Automatic annotation (TrEMBL):
Source domain of life: Bacteria
Region of interest: Disordered: 29-54
Domain DUF4232 span(s) in chain numbering: 55-194
Skewed-composition ranges (Pro residues): 29-53
Family matches, as InterPro entries: DUF4232
Protein name per its UniProtKB record: DUF4232 domain-containing protein
Amino acid sequence: MTRWVAGVVVGVVVAGAAVGCDVPPAPDAAPGPSGIRPPAPTVAASPPAPKAPACPAGGVRLAEGAGDAAMGLRVADIQLVNCGTEPYVLEGYPEVRLLDGKRAPVEVAVQHGGDGIAAAPTGTEGDPQRVELRPGQAAGFGMVWRNLVTDSTVPAAEGWVLEVTPRAGAPRLELELRHSVDLGNTGKLGISPWKAAAR
């Protein structure tokens, strides 16, 4: 009897020890580097710099210069740049035509100088001179007009596009204006002869 009890006790102790030794398995190891790198963040490419407009067939281009609009008297400068590879000679006055926002001709009398438009000097005075432009050089002419409505029954005229023939036989150039030639209904536009731009 004693021997059987002892066997039972030993069996229980061994079983208990076996139960106590039942340790859960170790967790799986964390995955190591796979050798594949994540893609680098993409950087947006800067937009290409705007290209200068192509030089027109005649070798010159127009640009709108400075202007002033004091007390209804308007003055504006138009520049002509030699963008070609050969010298360009100007003499006298340009031939000028105004178009409205729909590109229809504006009825206006273009005159040399500012007589009858302004009493004081406006920069449109002076005698015509020969101006030679080397490549990259510029010349200009001035314009003067009054924004004045003298007859309410006549619609006010406004030019948004300037057509210029720089010299006899040259191709006509077109310039869209940032500031309109708002003539009211005076119907007069004074222009200066070509003058070399300050260098």
